[in-house]
Amino acid sequence: MALVENFTTIVDTGAGLYPNLYNRIIELTMPALLLKQLLPEFPLIQGRTATFTREQGIGTSLGRAAAITQVGEGGEVLVDFTPFQYITSTPYKVALRERITRELIEDFYLPVIDQQLRRLARRMAYTIDKDVQTVLSAGAGNSVSATGVTYSYLGVGTNSFSLPGTIGVNDVTQAKSIIENYGLIADTLCINPLNANDLQRLPQFASQEIYGQSNYANGGIGYEYKGGQIMGLNLLVTPVVPVGEAYTISTGKNMSASLAPLGFFVIKRPLTVDVDFKKEYDSFDIVSTTRYSPVVTYGEAIYKSLGLRTS
Q: Considering only 13-27, 200-214, 224-238, which range has the smallest mean pLDDT?
């Protein structure tokens, strides 16, 4: 079960339109989903609420200090007890309707019909990604104001500069180190286009004359900006992230191969499109509905940078 499924055409008054309209809406909605891809889909087959279990003490010495104490000859072997906590998530319904008059169809006025469907698709995609962003922001286990500090290594000695209201190289490396201290591997940086502009203008990413070709992405010691990856992090630049914020994230990668997902995208009803002919309006209503709920289960995997410029 996925957010999008192949549906069998239902024969009713509007059946002649159904396949083309459905394909058009899905075709335009899915490519715009950026943040949703951070959460694996979890189909909720039965019931109204999904329940997830995770170990307690993840962010404390209890969770991370896993060494076993030595036992002397004839000594009692201690019992390991891991406390658990439960996280629940209840899917909610998101729905929207567009009305297409019969005259538009009879006149074959495709530009207007196409624009109505595009608007429906964009709003649905934005809503899904915005809901994911909201839970990422609320569930962040670390929220720190960015310093805007960047160190430049030129010859002998160390120079640094600070640009208030921007995200500096030090902010990126600090975020990675905090996440790595939980035994996770940071792999994604989500940022608004305005704040990404400040990041891209830093000399580590803009000046090949000074820093040359880097091998950082391959485990080297330099820095390189390729548009899709920065300092080993996949870069997701989207206006869905509020201006002034940035999220450094681990989607669950870790050196111990533990099951530590960032969260889940719970799906109760896949994205569904129905066509209904309204005789009283002599029009067709295209109704798009879905039931889902994004949830964060590992807040320590999110480092939220605050205090970035908003204009």
A: 13-27
